[in-house]
Structures are given as C-alpha cells and as structure tokens.
Amino acid sequence: MSSKPVQGRMTTNGEREVVVFLIGMRFNSWRAVRSWLPVFLAMPRMIKELARDPDSGMIGYRLLPGLPRHFAVLQYWDSKEKLFAYATDQGGEHRPAWAAFNRRAREGRDKVGFWHETYVVPAGSYESIYINMPSFGLGEALGTVPVGRRGERAADRMAA
Description:
Pfam families: Monooxy_af470-like (PF13826). With 160 residues, the protein is an alpha+beta fold. The chain has helices at 33-52, 80-88, 94-108, 137-142, 154-159; strands spanning 6-11, 18-27, 58-64, 70-77, 112-121, 130-133, 145-146.
C-alpha cells in the first residue's frame, strides 16, 4: 500500500462484481496455545500464497484490528468461484490448515473460535469515497477514478 495520499476525491468505478470475504478467529482460552497458535499462524501463510498468485482471485486484503481476543482479515475477491476454488484446492495452504483446525477443535473443544462471512456484491451495488487518502480498501483492490465519473453524492454513485 502506498502511503502517499492521492489528492482530491476518488471512488471505485463500480462496474464489476466483487466478493467481500471476512474471516476471523477468537481465542477462547489464552492458555490453550496448542489449540489457537496453529490457527493464528496459518492465515499469514495463506495470505502470502494468495498474494503471490495474481490468478488466485484474491484482489486485496486488510488486517482488521480487533478486540484483545479476536483477529480478522477483510479480503476482496474476483468471484465466489475463485474463492471456493481456493478453499477446496488440495495443493494449497487452506485445506491442510482447515483439516488441522477441525482436528484441534475436536480435541480442544471450545479453546478457539473461528468464523467467516461471504458477500457477493453485484456491479453498481457499492459506492466508496476516498478524500486525500492513499490507496485503501476496495479502492486499493479495484483501483479508483475521480468522483465526478460516478456522481458527486453517495446516492448518485449507488444509482449509476
């Protein structure tokens, strides 16, 4: 991510579908390091794997600050098909991490929590604005255009 602000008012162009994927974990017991540490360490490996492969479908991500016992990642994907393909890829980082998590969940019962949410957002069904901001969020994932191309107000950009 560039730290240099882009001057003016920018937005994403909204011309394509995007998949928003939120994924996180919660330490239910700090002492159960053997239950949560492997889960915690698996996510950076998966993010690196996805970031190295432009054809993976992940077009951007952001680590989300959380509560003391909670960690999450916001991801943007080209399509739900590419997200599902990654989730089921036998040769990728996800499958062994998921199998290990399930094993540990059975053994450690409730020591670590896990969640994810997936949203398929059709083209034209989202809007954004970035004012004097470096590339960020959806604008970083999809690129930005001047606000005037989509409308001056949020309602205009959603209607376009």
